[in-house]
Design goal:
The protein has 350 residues and is an alpha/beta fold. It folds into two domains: 106 residues, Aspartate Aminotransferase, domain 1 (Alpha-Beta Complex); 233 residues, Type I PLP-dependent aspartate aminotransferase-like (Major domain) (Aspartate Aminotransferase, domain 2, 3-Layer(aba) Sandwich), CATH 3.40.640.10. The strands form three sheets. A seven-stranded mixed sheet has the order 2-8-7-6-5-3-4, sandwiched between helices. The protein has a three-stranded antiparallel sheet with strand order 9-12-11. A two-stranded parallel sheet has the order 1-10. β5, α7 and β6 form a beta-alpha-beta unit. The protein is globular and about 55 Å long.
């Protein structure tokens, strides 16, 4: 930055795969063989063998029957949610859901019920007050992007089953992160994905590539292929991007030590920040927010960290509420223990 090297502590490349030699090599090979751009929407001529192979691998990875690719997590959420719920339906959305989920809910035209963050008791109460004849959709993140905590999946599934609701879960920050093999929140809680669940995940975070996907049963995927406007009317992902994601999935299978190192680094930073008296939130994930409060103070801390050789920008409204500004640290398997020690020493001085 500004002509000097700094250590990055704010990216979502959780497994350090974005610059992995094999990921880069596979992407380059695909670009050489198939060109860079897909040249068309998937339903015209943009769907190649790379896209098809990635769909198959992602479905298996998420223990689903099928999957579908999207240009980004934002386009997935803003396209899929309106395809699952319309003006005569009801959506139940967590208060701290990502902006893309909020926009998808608004675009659907459905009645929107906001429940308290991770408050499954209030969710059940809201569900019980609605007519069973209405189509109901529960929408939540798995790992919340600004707080780093984990949704109470068993309780949410129980609520969905009790009141006949479908579940759409955004696994952007849990795919490649949660679970013994990085398969996400269902593996984390040792639950098999049920028939009425759609999992959305991104390729541009732990998997080091770009784009997003939805995974679920074949019937749901066929519905999405024929109704999601952000899929139908968007150019397909470049083949090289798909090849990079395929390489990342393979590395995740063959190098489990990356996932172990990620969580050890997260534990090291979290424990160290607590020891020096920082106010942190989160739930054992690689997202570790230090709550500062006022926007001006968060910016001052971020600037001071930058001067000390660390890049972690201040998070301010509208990303977080007024008075809850923070430094949102994220760790990666690529960080060395010495990187974390140096950051903690800088934070202690500041």
């Amino acid at each position: 930055m500004d002509g000097r090297e700094v250590v990055l502590f704010c990216a979502n490349d959780y497994l350090g795969l974005a610059d992995h030699p094999e990921v880069i090599s596979r992407a380059a090979e695909a670009a050489q063989s198939s060109g860079f751009g897909a040249g068309s929407a998937p339903l015209i001529s943009g769907h190649t063998q790379y896209h098809e192979k990635l769909r198959e691998e992602l479905a298996g990875f998420k223990s689903a029957e099928s999957s579908l690719l999207f240009g980004s997590g934002y386009s997935a959420n803003t396209g899929i949610i309106p395809a699952l719920a319309g003006k005569d339906d009801v959506i139940f959305s967590d208060r701290l859901n990502h902006a893309s989920i909020i926009d998808g809910c608004r675009l659907s035209g459905a009645k929107i019920n906001i429940y308290g963050h991770n408050d499954h008791v209030q969710l059940k109460k809201l569900l019980s007050e609605k007519s069973r004849g209405e189509n109901r959709l529960i929408v939540t993140e798995a790992v919340f992007s600004m707080d780093g905590d984990i949704a109470p999946l068993p309780e949410i599934i129980h609520a969905a089953n009790t009141y006949g609701a479908r579940l759409y879960i955004d696994e952007a920050h849990s795919t490649g992160v949660l679970g013994e093999t990085g398969r996400g929140i269902f593996e984390h809680f040792k639950i098999s994905p049920e028939h009425d669940v759609i999992q959305m995940g991104t390729l541009g975070k732990a998997l080091g590539s770009y784009g997003a996907f939805a995974a679920g049963n074949t019937e749901y995927m066929e519905l999405l292929i024929n109704t999601v406007r952000t899929f139908i009317f968007s150019t397909a992902l470049p083949p090289s991007v798909c090849a990079a994601a395929l390489a990342a999935l393979e590395i995740l299978r063959h190098e489990p030590e990356r996932l172990a190192r990620l969580h050890e680094n997260a534990r090291m930073l979290r424990d160290g920040l607590k020891k020096i008296g920082c106010t942190i939130t989160g739930g054992g994930t690689p997202i570790i927010p230090v709550i500062v409060g006022a926007a001006e103070e968060a910016v001052r801390l971020s600037d001071a960290l930058s001067a000390s050789g660390f890049y972690a920008p201040a998070i301010r409204p509208p990303s977080v509420p007024e008075g809850e500004c923070r430094i949102r640290f994220t760790v990666s398997a690529a960080h060395a223990p010495s990187d974390i020690d140096a950051l903690l020493e800088a934070m202690k001085k500041l």
